[in-house]
Design brief:
transmembrane, 5 helices, YccF, two-stranded antiparallel ribbon, membrane, Inner_membrane_protein, mainly alpha, UCP028777, 8% strand
Length: 133
């Protein structure tokens, strides 16, 4: 079921979303100072391609720099990404087939809002909180 939902997700917005995050990652990596946000954007792009069957957990050992970086991210891009995910989820939830896609879109809000200090792990792992991808 996860594979079917991932294919539907990919066709109806996942590919465009992943390409957008990848483009943002490339721009951030070109600007040297913003490389941590670029790496986070690439991680989110991979998650945007296949969100079903994966979940976001806190990265062990993430410290104060992640908090500071997340504050900068919220001001610059995070709030706008979260708003766009909510608006897209509302549009997807109009149809019955789109409801799981809308839920997946809402599931992406925490990592698009606070990307630093997070890991993406398989959700079928025994203890996903304690495992890294």
């Amino acid at each position: 079921m996860k594979a079917l939902l991932n294919v539907i997700w990919l066709v109806f917005g996942g590919l465009v979303l992943a390409l957008g995050y990848a483009a943002a990652g490339i721009i951030c990596c070109i600007l040297i100072v913003t490389i941590p946000w670029g790496i986070a954007s690439f991680r989110i792009a991979g998650y945007a391609l296949w969100p079903f069957g994966r979940t976001v957990v806190d990265k062990p050992g993430a410290g104060g720099w992640s908090v500071l970086g997340n504050i900068v991210w919220i001001v610059v891009a995070g709030i706008w990404l979260a708003i766009s995910h909510v608006l897209t989820a509302i549009a997807q939830a109009i149809t019955i087939i789109g409801i799981p896609l809308a839920i997946a879109n809402l599931k992406m809000i925490p990592i698009s809002l606070l990307p630093l200090g997070k890991d993406i792990v398989p959700s079928d792992a025994r203890y996903p909180t304690y495992q890294r991808a």
